[in-house]
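Entry 14. Two folds queued back to back today. First construct below, sequence then structure tokens.
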Amino acid sequence: MARRASAEKKSKPAAVETQKSASWPQERALRRHLLELLRGGNAHLTFDEAIAGLPPKLRGAKPPGLPHTAWRLLEHMRIAQWDILEFSRNPRHVSPEFPAGYWPEGDAPPNDKAWQKSVKQFRADLKAIEDLVEDPATDLFAPLPHGEGQTILREALLVADHNAYHIAELVTVRRLLGAWES
């Protein structure tokens, strides 16, 4: 995941020309499907469903046989999503060191405020990615000038895939801790 910005490459996400092509209805449909995938639902739980009602005392609890706690998963999701967002919109962004920079140090949040702050930031960054996808001025298909072939489409799919995977892990942690009602 680690990506380094080149100092000499300066760019913004590619903009669609003002003249829409004949494929514009298909592109609108693609954007709508991407937004649905990013938001969860359909075949996936939403982020909010996965964290709802998790007792604070279990946020740092590690089930036997699993390497992560709910806190570690939340922070990992937040950090990775933030990195992908910043890479997508900021050519000067420097990614955290992989893999250590994508995980918190401890198993438990220092306090409830830290948990709430992480949840709030996760939601804000997800909304920013959704806004980028939804904006018709964003060319989903153009390679990011500061990347190595990545596109906004690829980055949005990466966020959706990564979040879906770790949301499922959150549910597994909760089930093994007895904190999930089927």
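Second construct, same run, same settings:
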Amino acid sequence: MCEPVEIRPGEDVYTLITMSSKTAEKSKKMDTSVARLPCACANLRRTARLVTQLYEDAMPAGITGPQFTLLQALKLAPGISQKQLAEILGMDSTTLTRTLALLRKRGWLSSQPASDRRALRLGLTKAGEREFERVLPYWQSAQKRLKQVLGEVKWQGLIKAVVDAAEAIQ
């Protein structure tokens, strides 16, 4: 046990937490399995949060996972309409508009009137292409890490399962 100590105003106070070797061994042996929830939505949302965190931890400062996803989509499909982009990504219009506004503010997004003038064709500016190329290796690193953790068979199964689910729901 520690003896009580008088703390005077203006003094810094620190707390030291120690763990006995016995407690440390017990914590190493703790079950780290994830609970199988009875709800598909809950399992998917939890997994999406964890996967998003894995990718965002790998990203450099200044860009989020959703912003990179839009850069990637616009790189792969230049001239796409906002409506088509929302459909491909399964995003609601409000969220997509807000994230596109951030890309526009950073100078990464270009937009041109479509032939019917009711829609805009979206693409990347030169700065947007440079940002995509700058961040791509970080994304590739996160992707590689997830593939390694899952293994090729589970990776392919995961991609197939989530694409199949999205197609069935649409």
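Quick look at the second one. The beta strands are 80-81, 109-113, 120-124. Residues 13-20 have pLDDT under 50 and may be disordered.
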